[in-house]
């Protein structure tokens, strides 16, 4: 085991409430810049140069991490059929009216572009891409909530892979509200 000073003279400085933020930042930077006590600067510069050979540096600095990931990796390929099989409904679908709502929901997703399907996946589960196993082992839930007005947009509980939907009155309303929610509410905490 080896010890490295995160800040100059760090062995003699006690970490207090006053300076802990500085130590945490120093630890984070050290973790990103050092591996086994060796600087990764040469490797990082080589990776940056290679990336800038493909994507101009001016463009690279303007991309968000998600945009860069999509540019490099492309959009995830989502199988709507597999997604449907990995989804349960609350309450359980027992009436023709409930079956119709489920049909409207999947009809909308099937008609979404790949980009909008990816936004829905992110909105619903906080995934930018599916795990290598796809939907296997994932348990998505759709909860049709009669307490929500049809004026409400869908809401997601990403930790539980749960999507709450009002009982919309038509396929068009379902698609429009869902699309609006994923396009405005999948980029962090918002009021969508």
Automatic annotation (TrEMBL):
The keyword Transferase applies. GO terms for molecular function: ubiquitin protein ligase activity. Its EC number is 2.3.2.26. Keywords: Transferase, Ubl conjugation pathway. Pathway: Protein modification; protein ubiquitination. One of its GO terms (cellular component) is cytoplasm. Pfam families: HECT. One of its GO terms (biological process) is protein polyubiquitination. The active site is at residue 159. It catalyses: S-ubiquitinyl-[E2 ubiquitin-conjugating enzyme]-L-cysteine + [acceptor protein]-L-lysine = [E2 ubiquitin-conjugating enzyme]-L-cysteine + N(6)-ubiquitinyl-[acceptor protein]-L-lysine. Residues 1-192 form the HECT domain. This is HECT-type E3 ubiquitin transferase. It comes from Ostreococcus lucimarinus (strain CCE9901).
